[in-house]
Design a protein that fits this description.
single chain; 270 residues; mainly alpha; Cytochrome Bc1 Complex, Chain D, domain 2; 2 domains; three-stranded antiparallel beta sheet; two-stranded antiparallel sheet; 5 strands; binds heme C
């Protein structure tokens, strides 16, 4: 090899080994794993990404997803990085008010500091969109907080498969829909993990979150589950109705999908 060829080989090798930047990591999480986009982008085709306005109606509330683009008046451009992280990880706005459901704040408390900062880097990169979203109204009391203040949240290493699986499944917030509902209609993350039963109404009619513990989906192979999560198609060819965010999960890496499947296999049967 000539010196130039050697230099090219080294340049290519370092390119492929290049670590993901925080912005790339944030875009991946927001679009494909945590799926903030599935709620914070309006349903109408062509709606600007993350500019809010999508409405969620249940017996307990009429909520409107917020505009998370950097517009300082109608979005979150005036929030500091710390305020944004406290918003999605602890459900607190800068002036102290509490962010209500269906924003799955409880699922985001585990977000590592690095991943939280990556999400902020992505939100800051969005084009600012002026879109004043309506105020949400709740017929249930909102909690005073979603738990004690968080300190440092360390990254979860993929060298520990059980911890990494639980981390990814938590970010993908499967249980926000697939946990059985308690008496007040909110997910029971203590006794109802994966049991299903929650109803979702919309233009498609009514869909009911099924049991996704091994007694519900144990008969699916890993490949069938990967396909179902990426395409919304069951092994018998039938299609899932909304609101499961399959178009977001479609872009998940094989590694993260496999981690989620490992998590489902290990759930106690319901
Ligand atoms: C299941 C739907 C859903 C998902 C997923 C979701 N959100 Fe939300 N989010 C909402 C709704 C609805 C509100 C408004 C709640 C209210 O009015 O109290 C909200 C409010 C917020 C707010 C408060 C903004 C303000 O101006 O008051 C922030 C910040 C936020 N979300 C960030 C995020 C981020 C970041 C993600 C992904 C990591 C995310 N959300 C995922 C539905 C969702
Ligand atoms: C926003 C709510 C929501 C989220 C988030 C969600 N799901 Fe679902 N899921 C549903 C609903 C509703 C159905 C039933 C759809 C239907 O009946 O057409 C469903 C169906 C399924 C099925 C099909 C089961 C069967 O018996 O055929 C599987 C498997 C599944 N979900 C797994 C997951 C996993 C794993 C995650 C997280 C990575 C997840 N879901 C996240 C609402 C959700």
């Amino acid at each position: 090899m000539t010196r130039t060829e050697i230099a090219i080989v080294f340049a290519l090798a370092s390119l492929s080994a290049r670590a993901e930047t925080p912005l790339e990591r944030g875009a991946y999480l927001v679009r494909h794993v945590v799926a903030c986009v599935a709620c914070h982008t309006n349903a109408a085709p062509g709606s600007p990404e993350m500019a809010g306005g999508r409405k969620f109606s249940t017996i307990a509330f009429n909520a409107y997803a917020a505009n998370l683009t950097p517009d300082p008046e109608t979005g979150v451009g005036a929030w500091t990085d710390e305020q944004l992280i406290a918003g999605f990880r602890e459900g607190k706005r800068p002036r102290g008010s509490i962010i209500g459901p269906p924003m799955p704040v409880a699922m985001y408390r585990g977000l590592s500091d690095d991943d939280a900062k990556a999400i902020v880097a992505f939100l800051r990169s969005l084009p600012p969109v002026v879109n004043k979203t309506p105020r949400s109204s709740y017929r249930i009391p909102l909690p005073a907080n979603y738990g004690p203040p968080l300190g440092v949240v360390p990254a979860v290493s993929d060298a520990d498969p059980a911890a990494y699986s639980a981390y990814v499944a938590g970010l993908a917030h499967c249980m926000a829909c697939h946990a059985r509902r308690g008496e007040d209609g909110s997910p029971d993350y203590v006794n109802g993990l994966g049991a299903g039963g929650a109803e979702f109404r919309g233009g498609w009619g009514v869909s009911v979150a099924p049991n996704i513990t091994p007694s519900g989906i144990g008969h699916y192979t890993d490949d069938e589950l990967r396909k179902l999560l990426r395409t919304g198609e069951r092994p018998d060819g039938s299609k899932l109705n909304p609101p499961m965010p399959v178009s977001s999960y479609a872009g998940m890496t094989d590694k993260d999908l496999s981690a989620i499947i490992g998590y489902l296999r290990a759930l106690p049967k319901k």
